[in-house]
Design a protein that fits this description.
With 254 residues, the chain is of the alpha/beta class. It contains seven helices and twelve strands. Helices cover 30% and strands 25% of the residues. Helix 2 packs parallel to helix 7.
Amino acid sequence: MPAKPAWPPKSLSRLFVEEPLRIDSDILITGPQAHYLRNVMRMAEAESIMLCDDLTGEYRATITSIGKRQLIARVEQKYRNREVVPDLWLCAAPIKKDRWYWLVEKACELGVKRIQPVRTERTIIDRIKPEKLRAHVIEAAEQCERTALPELSEMASLQQTLDNWPDDRHLFFADERLHEGEHQSGFAEQLHNHPGPAGLLIGPEGGFSDTENAAINAHPRAIAISLGPRILRAETAALTATAIWMAHHGDWVE
């Protein structure tokens, strides 16, 4: 659903479209997006909206025709190129429905490149609805004025994730078994020693099983990290680790 920006008051409605955008092209808007613009926002012909295609960037378009179930908008001006996305994957075990979608929205806001649902022994959600997941990331991106969407991967088992992990990508995993004194360096120092493309592996409620923990630790690209002395909920751990990585290797670096 396209976002209605809260501020500034007269800022333009924004939405992502499937069709590649180019100046002087006409874009057909249907379904929930058309309903929202026509019936909720009360848009009229000659009014402007912002469009993103997740390919080339962000454009201003003018509504040229409004029907009962569709709108047509003419693309007139390019505002921004598609943003450069930091090369971070978030690989997380799905948790309770509302908290899972909240986590996905916030991961999109923080700028992760890919979201990979991972099935573990203690994962409580067996299936993910791709269309619903995409709707949540689109809404988050529209609200935050992003010009890029995270890639959404199909759910894979932990073993599949480990077996298919790229050789050139670090795999940082939150290991709650780490005790004080076992590792002298924290996550920030680990990041200093391991720059480059990375993934964050976050377990479900209850954490990884002993067997899973051993399998992850045995992977050649895996790096166990601690997120501090307190036990964090799964969604808190995922966003904390994402924020720390962004501060060191992402687009938060000054």
